[in-house]
């Protein structure tokens, strides 16, 4: 049987989603780090989407749930927050973190942000931190977001900015691509920098008929004491890359690591590694 068109996309999506499920343990381990590093992004998301006491909030691609957990404080006991991710292993991590905080207004759900299996107009606010760029069709995902928002409801999303302005991750993809002699991810596969142009991000919201679109940058620098600490963490969290790195023979791993060590030289200081980083944060609403 030949697999074509939508079937092929479905198969490839399943594969990509499986890659994320496989790194849920690492995201659990580094969840507090990810939240601490992303605190300015989360604050900007909350400022744009402005969750109020009593609101219903949906977090998409929640991973360990950092943005949604922060929103749970804003909506209080009369509101509720649904933490959702395509990988059940990720929502399990998010559920454990919500329980550890004693939050009773938080639940979890397995949802694909490209096909949000929720009723129309079910939410006041939708949040997504570093997830929309993994959609194979981001406009369709934005249309889905609009559909599940009530009229007047707000959405805020964060995605990584340009690859060259995020060398803490971009140079890992550069090194792996150079090592394998082919682009990683392949041009047709969405990766962390798929929506890294602010005009493209705006256009996605516009195409989905969301209104009052705003988009800006938030600085997200990364500091690590040592090369090893940075490499262990980054290579454990980089969902689309992890299996690829694990599959490399030992000699290849050594060569790749040396290549990466050369590439990070410009970011090495007496205090360890200091990388710049930039996220794009966009907000919009469904017209009332
Ligand atoms: C870079 S992590 C970000 C996790 C979390 N939002 C954070 O900022 O800590 C990307 C997340 O997107 C999820 N994801 C990828 N594709 C998705 C899709 N189509 N629908 C929903 N979640 C998806 C992954 O499972 C993973 O948890």
UniProtKB/TrEMBL annotation:
Which biological process annotations from GO are given for this protein? Answer: methylation
Q: Does the keyword Transferase apply?
A: yes
Where would I find the Methyltransferase domain in this sequence? 57-153
Looking up InterPro entries in the UniProt record yields: Methyltransf_25, Methyltransf_Superfamily, SAM-dependent_MTases_sf
| Keyword Transferase part of the UniProt annotation | yes
Superkingdom: Bacteria
Which SUPFAM superfamilies does this entry report, sorted A to Z?
A: S-adenosyl-L-methionine-dependent methyltransferases
For this UniProt record, the keywords arranged alphabetically read as follows:
Methyltransferase, Transferase
Database matches in Pfam families: Methyltransf_25
GO molecular-function annotation terms?
methyltransferase activity
Q: What is this protein called?
A: Methyltransferase domain-containing protein
Query: Which species?
Result: Solirubrobacter ginsenosidimutans
